[in-house]
């Protein structure tokens, strides 16, 4: 499953520019989705699957270990990939120079490989390597944006991302020096005996700080808005919907599997730190989002806020909180994917995503703006959309702890979300269409279909939560050791 | 004595701090990359120190040797070095493109140009 996109990447790079690389990448992404679905079914039926590289038994050999959480995150990444890749063809043709298309898809598949690899691996050093594969190729993808600020954004992301990854590596090294193992399952068996050792505490601090940089937890989010804003549309949609989600997965894995919930949240002072930072983060970035002039940048800030919600869910350390965080990984991928793709369709037609330039667009591109509106409702958390479900779990997790004030804060920040989503809708729907835009037409069907697949998924998973929430709950229970 | 006995770790800490300081403090984009490199290298030295056993032999089977050094950290670091090389190459390539687009590689001046834009 990881091998397919990895092998396809150099093949794609050698193909002639034009449509061929796109068609092959789409085929690969659909194949991966099918495999991820089979894997998820298999894990749900029979429990964790372990694959040993080259027949070496863990803990010495490298192991791929898939449990409910992995399989779920893999499925999310594969699903977004399968929707975004077909979209990337026409969208990239309008934004990336013709001579670079095959390289563009090569990088794209490498990012995809890296993200799948991080999720599947059961070896903590491999996690670092895959993290770097996906990061390096995504820096390059961001740099392909049309605006020259894409270059500085990519540079800034590179510096911050490398520091984060190196912090993670320091943590891995320190852990290895005390336990002599790199296998995640083995680490979690050996660490409880070493909880008093200071090296373990240091390793914990380094790893959490490193991953927090990668997932753009509030004060460490500075690279994110620029990177999302100036990247090509398809790339923004793909990395916004997947790469930070995978970083959240790494965080969950490190906190709950490697170190164990007692150590991570009770013994180390992480719970208050995570909680306070994410609450400030959610409020501050939502306020910033309200003030943005560019719709993509607005969504980028709102992403940081949504990541804050996930961090709040993690910081509870309860089954309900973790369920909320994992469900939100899924739902946020759906809604941010839909929103960024809708903006990609806008950029395809008018070549800009500034809110001012979108005035009156609903008259000529009703389907695109409608998709954006529904995605926005989901972001706000209106009932019958996917966003409502994760907010519901989050609020009930807060109430379970007796923290009603936190529930109030979440409702208030949802109001801020209403404000920034409305800002775009209002301009696009109720302002007059300028004369110069009179010849703009609806986005082509090849762009609209991926957008609407995600929009309908938002509605579907807002009504039928059997799949998303139940799998998330099972994963959370498994992580906390409540149920088998 | 113990203080000096772990001298390699002091070197690691010094390099780490120096590298991070350079990344944060310098406005020149190339100097930032140099700092990043120093920072990464310090981590490599740390890993290699873990793997070293005083008097240990390389892990090759031979008569009369009982103490072996652990080769795994060294192998890991080879991988990490490759990652580091790739990062540096990409960063330098980006700097070249930035220089083409802005005509400067000083962070302050780029910032000013973006403000005007």
Keywords:
A: mainly alpha, 19 helices, 2 strands, globular, B: 117 residues
Summarize the structure in short.
The complex is a heterodimer of chains A (484) and B (117). Chain A is built from 19 helices and two strands. Chain A has 484 residues and is mainly α.
Commentary on this structure:
The complex is a heterodimer of chains A (484) and B (117). Chain A contains 19 helices and 2 strands. Helices cover 76% and strands 2% of the residues of chain A. In chain A, α1 runs antiparallel to α4, α4 packs parallel to α10 and α6 crosses α9 (223-230). The longest helix of chain A has 32 residues, at 319-350. Chain A has helices at 3-14, 20-46, 68-95, 101-120, 124-143, 149-179, 184-190, 198-214, 223-230, 233-258, 261-267, 270-290, 295-316, 319-350, 366-380, 386-400, 404-430, 445-463, 466-480, and strands spanning 49-52, 63-66. By secondary structure, chain A is mainly α. In chain A, strands 1-2 form a two-stranded antiparallel ribbon. By secondary structure, chain B is mostly helical. Chain B has 5 helices and no strands. Chain B has helices at residues 2-5, 7-25, 29-51, 72-102, 107-116. In chain B, α3 runs antiparallel to α4. The longest helix of chain B is centred in the last third of the chain and has 31 residues, at 72-102. Chain B starts with a helix and ends with a helix. Chains A and B meet through α5 and α6 of A and α3 and α4 of B.
What is the helix content of chain A?
over 70%
Shape of chain A: globular
Unreliable segments of 5+ consecutive residues of chain B: none
Oligomer: heterodimer
Give the helix proportion of chain B (percent range).
Answer: over 70%
Query: Pairing-aware structural class of the strands and helices of chain B?
Result: mainly alpha
What's the helix count of chain B?
5
Strand content of chain B: under 5%
Strand-residue fraction of chain A? Answer: under 5%
Largest sheet of chain B: none
């Amino acid at each position: 499953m990881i091998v397919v996109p990895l092998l396809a990447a150099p093949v794609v790079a050698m193909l002639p520019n034009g449509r061929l690389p796109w068609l092959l990448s789409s085929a690969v992404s659909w194949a991966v989705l099918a495999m991820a679905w089979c894997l998820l079914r298999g894990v749900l039926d029979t429990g964790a699957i372990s694959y040993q590289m080259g027949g070496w038994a863990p803990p010495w050999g490298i192991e791929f270990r898939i449990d409910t959480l992995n399989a779920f995150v893999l499925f999310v990444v594969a699903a977004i990939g399968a929707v975004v890749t077909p979209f990337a063809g026409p969208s990239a043709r309008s934004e990336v120079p013709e001579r670079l298309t095959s390289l563009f898809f090569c990088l794209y598949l490498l990012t995809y490989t890296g993200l799948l690899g991080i999720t599947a691996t059961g070896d903590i050093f491999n996690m670092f390597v895959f993290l770097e594969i996906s990061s390096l190729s995504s820096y390059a993808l961001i740099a392909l944006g049309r605006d020259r600020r894409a270059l500085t954004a990519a540079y800034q992301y590179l510096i911050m991302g490398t520091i984060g990854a190196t912090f993670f590596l320091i943590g891995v090294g320190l852990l290895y020096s005390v336990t002599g193992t790199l296998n995640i399952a083995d680490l979690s068996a050996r660490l409880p005996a070493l909880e008093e050792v200071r090296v373990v505490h240091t390793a914990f601090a380094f790893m959490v700080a490193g991953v927090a940089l990668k997932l753009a937890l509030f004060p460490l989010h500075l690279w994110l808005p620029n990177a999302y804003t100036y990247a090509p549309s398809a790339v923004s949609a793909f990395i916004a919907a997947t790469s930070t989600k995978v970083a959240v997965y790494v965080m969950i894995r490190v906190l709950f599997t490697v170190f164990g919930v007692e150590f991570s949240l009770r013994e180390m002072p992480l719970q208050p730190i995570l909680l306070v930072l994410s609450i400030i983060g959610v409020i501050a970035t939502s306020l910033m989002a309200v003030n943005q002039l560019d719709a993509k940048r607005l969504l980028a800030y709102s992403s940081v806020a949504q990541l804050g919600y996930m961090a709040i869910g993690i910081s509870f350390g309860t089954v309900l909180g973790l369920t909320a965080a994992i469900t939100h990984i899924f739902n946020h991928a759906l809604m941010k994917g839909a929103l960024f793709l809708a903006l990609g369709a806008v950029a395809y037609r008018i070549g800009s995503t500034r809110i001012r330039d979108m005035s009156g667009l609903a008259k000529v591109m009703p389907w695109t703006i409608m998709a954006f509106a529904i995605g926005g409702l989901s972001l706000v958390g209106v009932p019958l959309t996917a966003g409502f479900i994760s907010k519901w779990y989050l609020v009930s997790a807060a109430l379970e702890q007796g923290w009603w004030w936190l529930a109030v804060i979440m409702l208030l920040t949802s109001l801020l979300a209403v404000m920034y989503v409305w800002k775009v809708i209002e301009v696009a729907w109720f302002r007059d269409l300028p004369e110069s835009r009179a010849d703009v037409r609806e986005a082509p069907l090849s762009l609209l279909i991926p957008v609407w697949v995600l929009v309908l998924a938002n509605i579907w998973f807002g009504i039928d939560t059997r799949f998303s929430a139940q799998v998330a709950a099972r994963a959370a229970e498994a992580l906390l050791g409540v149920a088998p | 004595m113990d203080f000096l006995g772990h001298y390699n770790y002091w070197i690691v800490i010094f390099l780490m701090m120096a590298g991070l300081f350079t990344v944060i403090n310098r406005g020149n984009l190339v100097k930032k990359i140099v700092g990043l490199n120093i920072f990464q290298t310090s981590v490599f030295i740390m890993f290699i120190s873990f793997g070293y056993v005083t008097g240990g032999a390389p892990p090759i089977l031979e008569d009369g040797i009982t103490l072996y050094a652990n080769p795994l950290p060294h192998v890991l670091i080879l991988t990490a070095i490759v990652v580091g090389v790739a990062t540096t190459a990409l960063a330098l390539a980006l700097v070249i493109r930035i220089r083409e687009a802005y005509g400067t590689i000083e962070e302050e001046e780029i910032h000013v140009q973006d403000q005007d834009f």
